[in-house]
Each structure stands twice: as structure tokens, then as C-alpha cells.
Amino acid sequence: MKILRFGCMALAVALFAVGCAKTVKPVTVPAVTTNAAPSSAAPEASTLPAPAQTQISPLDDPSNILYKKVVYFDFDKSNIKPEFLDLLTAHAKYLIANPNQKIRIEGYTDERGTWEYNIALGDRRAQSVRRFLLFQGVNPDQISTVSYGEAHAVCHEHNEACWHLNRRAVLVYLNQ
Amino acid sequence: MRRKFLLIIGLALLPLAASHATLEITVTRGVNTAVPVAIVPFAWQVQGPAPSTDVAAVISADLTRSGLFKAIPVKSMLEKPTEASAINFTNWRILAVNDLVIGRIKPAGSGNYQVEFQLFNVYTSQQLLGLSVLTTPQSLRWTAHKISDLIYQKLTGQRGAFATRIAYVEVSGRAGKDSHYALVVADSDGANPQTVFTSNEPIMSPDWSPDGKYIAYVSFENQRPAIYWQNIYTGRRELLSERPGLNSAPVFSPDGKSLALVLSSSPGNPDIYVMNLSTHALRRITHSDAIDTEPAWSPDGQSLYFTSDRGGSPQIYKVNLNGGRPERITFDGNYNARARISPDGQTLAMVHRENGQLHIAVMNLNTGALLTLTDGDLDKSPSFAPNGSMIIYEANYRDRGVLAEVSVDGQVHERLSESQTGMSLHAPVWGPFLSQ
């Protein structure tokens, strides 16, 4: 077939014949869409550096709600408190808009329980957040969970100010 | 995965002590009726310098640690006989000593020792026990523990648990990043600590096999919990379960052939399973929508006790492995968890929470009566000595985890703490009687 096509092409070049075009399949060029906004100053010469318009991710922008990635729980409880609904809704929207982004939800507890029951309680908290995100429409494939229970505490004082900080679920955005 | 397995290898027990800070033991509360005994320093009848192990001191510490005896200090002794013919019992009656131990260490060929000891009742002047134990120099301390066991059994009628081992998790560093975890095996008095596994991620829930050769534990080395078991003599580890979700709370069956563990079959719903250790086949035991975790075997291997919050908050339940519904066991308070059953099957030890504080409590399985044994804030992880007389557990003291022991009647209390600062000790588990 190759030889034939070459021969045809050669022939076409030589004779401007269109008969060989029948063997060539029409190629449709798919429409290319891009999310990227056109850069305001497209460099023509290669010596010019790219414009310093580094777009900070909303996840890393302190003024963005997505910057916060921790929700806190009441003692022995795993239900999402009303004050975190907006935060989790925002994360859900971001994940839906970025279907290739994966997160791991890490569940934790304070120290006032047994090690293994705390693993289960931390897991319940992570699952609680996961369920909320799924209910908002996030694809389950984007979410994994793990519980560390009381391990990896953020503080070690034996008072409510510290215990409160340890009763948490953390949304960890995973690098691609 | 393979690469990671090679990097985090298990370590094997060495015959000699590794470089490790020994645990310090403090008897914080003793029995008023502890029987005064005297262990006279043993005669060293071998050529060469005396060994670092003071056999009499080890025996004294063992017997005192049981809470049933109180060994008098050497400086109080009016005489220090090492042969029976040299004993003047009057010198001991004056001190109200009830029982006297004397001994000698002799050469036994090939560099080994013969340790001879004799036990006397001071008031009757009768010899109760006279034995000779052959030992290598390296095993001298272990032999002292075996002698303690023999003396303890003669005087109490109960088998001693001094020649046994414990395992625990040692954590150094505080912030999440610099935390370092080690699984350590030591003699039951904390001596000869040796690390058998280390990781930068949490290690939890160690459990001894009934033959004392393996420890099963949970490791987060792959950033998620997995259950491994490791031969402590060869260092060989095998992965038992790394299923999605929880892999938790492994406990060997009394016959050593099975392992009860916790998996989450569906998200947020941990359940109890039993794994056949030969085939790794799983059998599901609980089916509730609640948290079911922390299984513990009855000594006859027929039932599992476990923690469940199916009633609203964690309580302990019992289920017969031959069938039948789980039956609730604890009713005092709203948090009872992490059951362990005494070797004679009569007593259940647990973590009992009251006003946010965790204590170790025991329940008489015949009468249902609950007795709180400890008064710390964060007492957890109780484990019975193989003779059922003591419970080792973890406590918080001066802001770090320490190991502590309490007698089953709550009379005797001890604390074993890491002498190096910055180290926290957790999850102690008492090993079985050892045949050698």
C-alpha cells in the first residue's frame, strides 16, 4: 500500500492526477479547545522571557476559601458542623471543575480514647467528609481516605484548646 | 512496593543487649502485707572478674516488683552467708525476714556457669528449695529471672512471670515530621531492650504469638495502615493485610493458628474478621453498621470480646465463634474499650473512661463487678502477664508516655519510664511463658 501511495503521490505530483486521492482517507482535524486564556503578550522573539503573570492556585491563595483544608469535629463526634459546610462545598466545586485532581482525606482524633477505637473514629470523620463531597457530585475516584487516629497530633497539651485542634479531617491535595 | 519492603527490614533479636536506654522502674505503691525476704549476694566462685549481672539484686527486684514480697537492702543484713552451714537464723529473725535465699555461681566448663541457690524459711529453719541451674554467661540475667520464678512459685503456689518478655512502641520526636517509631522487645523488667522494627510512620497494636516467636503489628510505612507479622529471632516480616480502609488491631488466637483483626468492608464501618494464618483465608465475624474493633480472644479460643458502639457509645461485647449474636458485657459508664482477658478466663481488663479520663479497670466475668485499678488520665493498652497477676499498660507521666504495671487487685503500682528524655512509650504487650 505504501509503495502504491508513493507511486500515486509521485504520479499526482507529476501528472496532477486526483485518481490516487481515493486511496487516501479523509482526515478530520478535531477542534482544539484550550482552557488557557491567551497570554496578553505573546512573545515573538525567543529571547524575551514569558510574562510574569504566574497564576497562583486558589488552593495556595490565602485569600481564597480553598486555602483552608481542615475541618474540626466535636468530641466523639463525626458529623460535619454547619460552620464547615461552605468550605466543603467550595472544595467540592473545585474538585468537580478539576476532575483529574485527587485528594486524600486524613481523619484524626484527640488522645482521649483507645488507639484502635480512635483509628475507627478518625476513619468515620474522613468518611463523613468524603460522603459530603460525593453528595455534592464529586467523582469517588478522586477521593481516598486514611485515618491516623490520635497519631500525628498537631499539639500535645492536655487541654481542650489542643484537643480541639486534633479532632480534625484534613483534605490533602495530591500532586499529579 | 518491593523496594519499600527491602528498605524497611525487620531486625532480629540479638543474643546480647543492643545499645538502648534501659527502663527505670519505680514502685509507686506497694502492699502493706508484703512479706519481708532476704536475698544474700551470691558468691562468685569463678576465675576472673564478677559479671555485671548481680543475680541476687535481680531476684530481689523481681520479688519486690510482684508486690507480694519486700526484699531487705543488703546494707541491713547482719551476715551474708553463701553456704547453708554459715547461716545463723537468729540474725534473720531479728530483721523479721520470713524467707532467705543464698547462692553461689560456680564454673561449669566451656566457660559456662552453674548457679546454685537455696531457699529457707527463717522461722522453721527448713530448706524449701535447693536447685542448680546451668547457664551461659550471656544468659545469666535471664537465669536470675528463672530463679525468681522458681522461688515465687514455691512461696505463692503460683507460676512466676519474671522470665518473660514485653514488647512496646517507642516514639521519639514530637512534631509530625520528625517522629520516629520503634518496636522494642525487652525483658519483663525492662532490661535488654532491643529494637526489632523501626519506621518514620506510626507503629501500633503489637501482639505476641502464643509461642513468643512472632509479633503482629500495624505499620503505616506505606502511608496507610497494614498488618505485618515478624519473627523476632530471624527478623523476617510478612505482610498479612493491606486492604483498602482499616487494617487494625491484630490479635493471635490462643492456639496460634489464627489472627483476629479489623477491616472496613465498607467505608466507615470497621468489622471483626478472623484470618487463618496458614491460608490467609478470612472469616467475617461482625456485621453491624457500627464501629466493631479491638477484638480479644477468650483463653479457650471459642469466643471473641470486642469494642462496639452499636449501642451509641463504645462498650465491650462478646460473641461465640460457633454462632450466636454478640452479647453486651459492660454497662458501667459510656466508654469501655480495648478488652483483654486474663489467662484463667475469669477477669476482663479494659480501658474505662470517666469524665474524659481513661483508667484501667477489671471486671469479674462471673459477678460482673467492675473495679477501677488506676487513676491516671490517659491509661491505655492493658495487657496481662501470663500468670494473670499483673497488668502492664501505658500511662502519661510528666508529659510523655510511660509503661506502668498494676496488680490485678489494684494493690501494687509501678512505673517503667524511658530514662532518655524525649522518648514516649506506648502499647505495651506482655509475652507468654517461654519454654527455655
Describe it.
The complex is a heterodimer of chains A (176) and B (436). In chain A, 31% of the residues lie in helices and 14% in strands. Chain A has 4 helices and 4 strands. Chain A has helices at residues 2-15, 85-97, 115-135, 160-166; strands at residues 70-72, 102-108, 143-149, 168-174. Chain A is globular and about 60 Å long. The model of chain A is unreliable at 1-45 (pLDDT under 50). Chain B contains 4 helices and 31 strands. In chain B, strands 2, 3, 4, 5, 6 and 7 form a 6-stranded mixed sheet that branches. In chain B, β29 (400-407) and β30 form a beta hairpin. The two termini of chain B are 38 Å apart. Chain A binds chain B through residues 75-76, 111-117, 119-121, 123-124, 127-128, 130-131, 145-149, 151-154, 156, 158, and chain B through 174, 176, 179, 202, 204-205, 220, 223-225, 245-246, 248-249, 262, 264, 267-268, 270, 291, 293-294, 307, 313-314, 335, 337-338, 351, 353, 356-358, 377-378, 380-381, 396, 399, 426-427.
